[in-house]
Amino acid sequence: MFCPLFFGYGTATAPRGAGRLGNWRTTVYGDLFDASAAFTEQQGDKLAVRAEKKARTRNRLIDSALAIIGVGANFASISLREVAKTAGVVPTSFYRHFGDMEELGLAIVDELGLNLRRLMRGSFDAKESLDDIIQHCTEAYFDYVQDNANLLQFVNQSRTGGTEALQNAIRNELQFLSGRIAIELSVLLPESNAQDRDIIGRLVVSTLMENTTNLLAIPSESSSLREELKQCTVDQIHIIMLGAKQWRSGQES
What is the pLDDT of residues 192-210, one digit of tens each? Predict the structure, then answer.
């Protein structure tokens, strides 16, 4: 006589006869395997729900910080408690996602980086003329700034007035953007060398950032001023490219 099995399957005993013992074991162990698989799946579902909830709270904290910036606050002066209150969570919940406000700011910079990468993807088409590329890339960037005004306001504030870590993080993202432009210019301006293309990329990014500040200062109802600034940006980039076609580093003027 075998001892009872206490796994939620009653008090089963082994059937008599060695021939049927293997079948009995197969049935019991099969049931145990099925139960274990069901339990694992259930635990996996719970973990997935928990992770999704955590991600939602994290995003809500980021969105709340940006919303506070959107009503005129400077990120450097926003308190952790203010962000938590706006997000509808207790301050202790904040610490489950970010160690401090600087860490939240770095998460916002990461979001900027992801957005810039999406924006750059497919922006340059070698089949298009340089004029067309400048036009549609500038339009795409202006649309992005309008749709993400609070995020770009944060960038404007933190580029020079943020902590050293935030300034470095933003600088790295802008360097990535200028580097991507330089790579694309190897096709658009094949006669230029790598050093020149790097300079051109930086000039384009500097122009975009300067005009980002100007764009954010334009009232939302002033569409004519926005279009005027957009055309000014297109013209500025055209001038940069015109000079780039004539310039070669190291040549005498």
Answer: 899 999 999 999 999 999 9
